[in-house]
Amino acid sequence: YGLGDAPLVAVGFSNGANIAASLLLKGAGVLDGAVLLRPMVPFEPDVPPELRGVPTLLLAGRQDPIAGETPSRLAELLRAAGAEVELVWQQAGHGLVSADIELAARWLRERFPDSASLR
Question: Helix or strand or coil: residue 46?
Answer without folding.
Answer: coil
